[in-house]
Amino acid sequence: MADDHSKANDKLKEAASKESIPVPSDIGAKNQATYDRLSKLDGAAFDRAYASAMVKDHQADVAAFRKQANAGKNDSIKSFASETLPTLQDHLKEAKEMLKTVGASNTRAKKANTGR
Q: I want to staple 15 with a disulfide (CB 3.0 to 4.6 A). Which of 51, 56, 76, 79 is the partner?
């Protein structure tokens, strides 16, 4: 997933550069807040929070890329969105599976600890 995101970022920078569109160089306040929150967690709590954040972020990204791919005004960015959308959709599926897995392991752990 990280490799796909790095490749997509490189392609985005290239498309944006062709169109003289500035690309942020920092992660932004929202992503920094998520990072800060996750960095305070560990173990199962981290796994659940990370998986949940990945689902939420990928849902938002898929919606934004779909909108841009279908109705974008800039051909370079529209093409980038169209090419990248299937990978994001795959990542969303993976994130949902991860969330199911960490949620299921959490449920099993609770049952083991409570005897239910």
A: 76
Give the type of residue at 80: F
The Cα 47–Cα 100 span in angstroms is: 11
Sign of CA dihedral 9, 10, 13, 16: negative
Identify whether the C-beta of residue 41 lies closer than 8 Å to the C-beta of residue 106: no
Instruction: Give CA–CA dist 85/77, Å, rounded.
Output: 12
**What pTM was computed for the model?**
0.81
Q: What is the pLDDT of residues 62-113, one digit of tens each?
A: 999 999 999 999 999 999 999 999 999 999 999 999 999 998 665 544 544 5
Question: Residue 98 and residue 100: Cα distance in Å, rounded?
Answer: 5
Which DSSP letter does residue 26 get? S
How far is Cα 94 from Cα 106, in angstroms, rounded to an integer? 18
Nearest to 57 by CA among 88, 80, 97, 16: 88
